């Protein structure tokens, strides 16, 4: 038996001024996007801002539905819109912010499993890492350099064989 340890480097910033100007701007765009979330059921608003290699920023926010599973997370609204509007353009970074009307969110909310899987598809397609910037109302800012860091052993198209 062999044991393999899988770990990753999480960068933790106590102050947004430690980030580059572009990263600060992207987080602000995610925060703005969050305000337009449609979250009447959970009262939990999420905003995402996707920075592309051509300099464009595509935003998304969570869109809920009275039939709960029909809603969609902010991250997927944003990356699917980026894929639809700018097909083939590399995604560099996704900033994600969250807040709740019911309580103060104390630490950065990381994307759910479905969103990680959806984002990793684009990493594999484009052949380069997508970094994530995560921030909530309180606490530090987290950065991870690749979504694959937070979805180890991910399913990918190679399992499907040649087609
Ligand atoms: N949500 C997101 O938008 N992104 C995530 O990664 C996790 C959860 C949304 C979905 C739902 O509208 C609300 O947050 C509560 O789960």
TrEMBL record:
EC annotation from Swiss-Prot or TrEMBL: 3.5.4.5
Coiled-coil zones: none
The keyword Ligase belongs to this UniProt entry's keyword annotation: no
Keyword Hydrolase part of the UniProt annotation: yes
Cofactor(s) this protein requires: Zn(2+)
InterPro entries with a match to the protein in the record: APOBEC/CMP_deaminase_Zn-bd, CMP_dCMP_dom, Cyt/Deoxycyt_deaminase, Cyt_deam_tetra, Cytidine_deaminase-like
Function statement: This enzyme scavenges exogenous and endogenous cytidine and 2'-deoxycytidine for UMP synthesis.
Protein name according to UniProt: Cytidine deaminase
Organism: Flagellimonas okinawensis
């Amino acid at each position: 038996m062999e044991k393999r340890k899988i770990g990753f480097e999480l960068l933790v910033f106590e102050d947004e001024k430690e980030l580059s100007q572009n990263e600060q701007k992207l987080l602000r765009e995610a925060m703005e996007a969050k305000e337009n979330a449609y979250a009447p059921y959970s009262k939990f608003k999420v905003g995402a801002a996707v920075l592309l290699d051509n300099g464009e920023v595509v935003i998304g926010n969570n869109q809920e539905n009275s039939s709960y599973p029909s809603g969609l997370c902010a991250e997927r609204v944003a990356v699917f819109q980026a894929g639809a509007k700018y097909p083939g353009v590399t995604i560099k970074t996704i900033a994600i912010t969250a807040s709740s009307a019911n309580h103060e969110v104390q630490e950065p909310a990381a994307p759910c499993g479905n969103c990680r899987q959806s984002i990793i598809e684009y990493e594999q397609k484009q052949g380069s890492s997508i970094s994530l910037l995560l921030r909530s109302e309180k606490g530090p800012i987290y950065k991870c350099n690749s979504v694959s860091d937070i979805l180890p052993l991910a399913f990918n198209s190679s399992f499907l064989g040649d087609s």
